[in-house]
Amino acid sequence: MTTMKRRNFLKGAGLAAAATSVAAPAIAQSSPEVRWRLTSSFPKSLDTIFGTAQTFAKYMADATDGKFQIQVFAPGEIVGGLQAMDAVENGSVECAHTPTYYYIGREPALGVATGLPFSLNARQSHSWWHFAGGKEIINEILGKYNCTSLVCGNSGAQMGGFFRKEINTVDDLKGLKFRIGGLGGQVLAKLGVVPQQVAPGDVYPALERGTLDAAEFVGPYDDEKLGFLKVAKYYYAPGFWEGGAMLHLVINKQKWDDLPKHYQAIMSNAAEAANNWMLAKYDAVNGQALRRMVGAGAELRTFSQPIMEASLKAANELYEELSAKNANFKKAYDSMVAYRADVLPWWQLNEYAFDTFMIRTRGRA
Amino acid sequence: MTTMKRRNFLKGAGLAAAATSVAAPAIAQSSPEVRWRLTSSFPKSLDTIFGTAQTFAKYMADATDGKFQIQVFAPGEIVGGLQAMDAVENGSVECAHTPTYYYIGREPALGVATGLPFSLNARQSHSWWHFAGGKEIINEILGKYNCTSLVCGNSGAQMGGFFRKEINTVDDLKGLKFRIGGLGGQVLAKLGVVPQQVAPGDVYPALERGTLDAAEFVGPYDDEKLGFLKVAKYYYAPGFWEGGAMLHLVINKQKWDDLPKHYQAIMSNAAEAANNWMLAKYDAVNGQALRRMVGAGAELRTFSQPIMEASLKAANELYEELSAKNANFKKAYDSMVAYRADVLPWWQLNEYAFDTFMIRTRGRA
Fold it and tell me: Tens of pLDDT along A10-60?
């Protein structure tokens, strides 16, 4: 299950080259057979997110004529979903498909890699990653953990989740038992929310019993499958804590460095293509799922401006605290903030003006 | 300069295989050396758009260890920018990087492939292409021209161009000599605009003399280089005729079919990666260019709602006319409209709500 060592392979190929004059062995040298294992942080039932890793693996096999095989494992088959990066770090697997914000306990800057509450949308995130310092900063930090990464998937803006009761004021958040993780949970905790970690299978009964007041997952297509609508009918937008969550293929640094350069190139392109597959699929299925859920009784709500404003203030406080005590976080955060300051005025002038008109006239266009 | 014929190559490789027992020749069979020519419709000076073809070619070479070489030509080196698809059709070149709307005179449906006025933004376009029928419909149509295609680039929403005078009412459009092409020009012609085809090098003097009243190109990063600001200071948003223009790699169908399957897979991924490179780069450089142009005296304006509404009405009339007389256009257009009806309510609820809050609070986030 490990990468074929290139050195050894070249040695064998050298012998073959001596036996024949065709150019073939030179080609064989550079395209070894490779088998990797990938552990995903997402359950198989979420076919878009788990499917992104499968799609990536298929792209790798197809592009190498079957020579680079990646076997995809669900959480629990090798390690749990929250231990995916650790398994890459210690070499148990070659790579993982995971949101790096799962590891903010070890390294807060990895929250910036996925996307912070109130940071960037999907397109802006991708641009920051490739053209505004994101990739360099995050992969330098990941190097400390014997890892590197490629962006490989984006959810788009996520929904705010299902709530048993309407939430109108900031006061309504006090004591609210909300299944929400990561920095989004830390932001809302400053406003009195009690963030809960509950395994997916346990959320439904917890909402039914009232042990939980609310739960957030991803967006309509995934949320519909979970069936929470039956016990918590208020469906809130937007999930301001994940405006465009980037997922990463986290790769063991040594295994990456051992790959022939053109396998690295194939993998970089396959990750970009799988990234687009995920976002494009969500953008094609979420609208229909939302309509079905509304038909089934979902009451759509948007968080009130006072709740959004108070959350923004809490987020900014949290980022100040984290920046003060963690230089890596500060470096990644400052880079994102500088990018955002450049992009938003331009977005407002043009991209947003186009979207606004299309939304305002929908049904007439 | 043509693809190595796979049949012939296999014949030669079969002889080599008989001479040795190593697996190498089997590998060599499937990874032939290939040299293609690509003609771009964009001048070298537009380093992001022309650069997308160069980036694609580099990705192909890197992913094949240099075996698949694509030489990129600027307009005029082989054929003119508007003849790129024709050159692919007749086999003068293997592929072209071009907006398919250049060929609406031959096939109006190709306007839908790039994106119609008031159709979809960049992300929605990509989703429609891959998951809502776009790719299948357009490539079936391109088959008639001995071509197939991959999406390979997106501009994001384009700007509305430079105007010598402010345009406030629909009446102000009457007689306006505007350098604008394609279906955007046809839409505005219904409101009295006189669309002009002017080569890039001739636009500046035409604006200075008053032979032109206005000219549109792409967005701030490209527009800044053209220097039109000195003779036409009103810079309008949004370019509602190109809300997220998709560029295509148009490929000779025979050459595509002749490629080994894994070269096709490598090319599909490289095109997706180059697509992201272009959009991410624009999203990183347009904001800064806009700020510089404002510093240099650009007066930002947005088209008034009556102008936008009248343009939408004119666009819908045009689409009705085209649908009535062209079945291919109708098929592609109806597919886009069905996708848009699904995606926009969802976009409004969530993605747009996130963007709205981020824009409203910018400077405070």
Answer: 333 333 333 333 334 344 458 999 999 999 999 999 999 999 999 999 999
pLDDT, one tens digit per residue, over A167-192 is 999 999 999 999 998 899 999 999 99
Q: Give the nearest chain A residue to B334 (CA atoms).
A: A365
Domain membership of residue A109 (yes or no) is no
Token pair recorded at residue A62: 């197809």
CATH at B68: 3.40.190.170
- How much is the ipTM here? 0.92
**Host domain of residue A9:** 1-30
Residue A229 DSSP one-character state: G
Query: Model's pTM, two decimal places?
Result: 0.92
What total of structural domains would you count in chain B?
A: 1
Do residue A283 and residue B343 have CB atoms under 8 angstroms apart?
Answer: yes
Residue B5 has pLDDT above 50, yes or no: no
Nearest residue, CB atoms, B276 vs list A28, A126, A356: A126
